[in-house]
Design a protein that fits this description.
This protein has 207 residues and is mostly helical. It has 2 domains: 3-95, Cytochrome c-like domain (Cytochrome Bc1 Complex, Chain D, domain 2), CATH 1.10.760.10; 109-187, Cytochrome c-like domain (Cytochrome Bc1 Complex, Chain D, domain 2, Orthogonal Bundle). It contains 10 helices and no strands. Helix 1 (3-18) packs antiparallel against helix 3, helix 4 (55-66) packs across helix 5 (84-95) and helix 8 packs antiparallel against helix 10. The chain is globular. InterPro entries: Cyt_c-like_dom, Cyt_c-like_dom_sf, Cytochrome_c_Oxidase_Subunit.
C-alpha cells in the first residue's frame, strides 16, 4: 500500500474515532471524504463513488464492514463505535449528493460491447437500465469507478467477497476477462439517463 494512502487511512481512522459521538452529517462524513470525496465522487484510485447510491445499500455495506464480514484494505473501515443511526445519516448524505462522476478514458469500444451483451443476459434482472436502476436490493452500478469494479470482480472470483444467490447465478461460468468486460461496460455508462427533450428518466428513490 503506498505511503501516502496509508497516512490518509491512519488520519481517517483517527477522525472516525474522534467523531463517533456526533449526529451531525458534516461531522460524521469527515473520515469518509478523505477517499470518497466531499460530494461522494472518489478521490482515491480504486475507491467507489458514493454519490447517488441507494441509501439502504450503503447502510448494509457499512454494517458489513463494521462487523468485518466484508473485506477491506482499510483497517477498521467502519469503527464499531458508530451506531446504525449514524450509519444511516452517512448513507443519506452521500445518497443525496449531487455530483458528476468522471468517466474512464480510452476504453476499447469492443470491450464495452462485450460487457453490454453479458449484462443483457446475466445482469439486467438486478441492474436494469444499464446499471442506473436497481432491483432485488442491488446497488446502482452506472458510472462506478472502473478500478473498484475490477477489484470487486476479482474478489468475488477469489472467494474473498461472498456471493449473494443471484450473483452466484450471474457469475457462474464467466471467465475473469468476461467479468472485466462487464466492469468496463458499467463504468462507461452515464450515471443518469441521457436527457431526451425536456424529460430525464429518474433514478429510484434513495430511501
Amino acid at each position: 500500500m503506498p505511503i501516502r494512502f496509508s497516512l490518509i487511512m491512519i488520519c481517517a481512522l483517527g477522525l472516525a474515532t474522534a467523531h463517533a459521538d456526533s449526529s451531525e452529517p458534516d461531522v460524521l462524513v469527515k473520515p469518509c471524504i478523505e477517499c470518497h470525496g466531499t460530494a461522494g465522487v472518489a478521490v482515491a484510485r480504486g475507491t467507489p463513488h458514493l454519490n447517488g447510491q441507494l441509501a439502504p445499500y450503503l447502510v448494509e455495506a457499512m454494517i458489513q464492514f463494521r462487523r468485518h464480514r466484508r473485506p477491506s484494505s482499510v483497517p477498521e473501515h467502519i469503527p464499531t463505535a458508530y451506531t446504525d443511526g449514524q450509519l444511516a445519516t452517512i448513507a443519506q448524505y452521500f445518497s443525496s449528493a449531487k455530483a458528476v462522476r468522471p468517466k474512464p478514458e480510452g476504453i476499447d469500444g469492443q470491450r464495452i460491447e462485450a460487457g453490454a451483451a453479458i449484462h443483457a443476459k446475466r445482469c439486467m434482472e438486478c441492474h436494469p437500465d444499464n446499471g442506473r436502476e436497481s432491483d432485488k436490493d442491488a446497488p446502482l452500478m452506472a458510472a462506478q469507478d472502473l478500478d473498484y469494479l475490477l477489484a470487486q470482480t476479482e474478489a468475488f472470483r477469489a472467494g474473498k467477497r461472498k456471493f449473494a444467490f443471484l450473483m452466484d447465478e450471474a457469475y457462474r461460468d464467466l471467465a475473469q476477462d468476461e467479468l472485466a468486460s462487464v466492469a468496463y461496460f458499467f463504468a462507461s455508462q452515464d450515471q443518469l439517463a441521457p436527457v431526451t427533450g425536456k424529460k430525464r428518466r429518474k433514478k429510484p428513490a434513495a430511501d
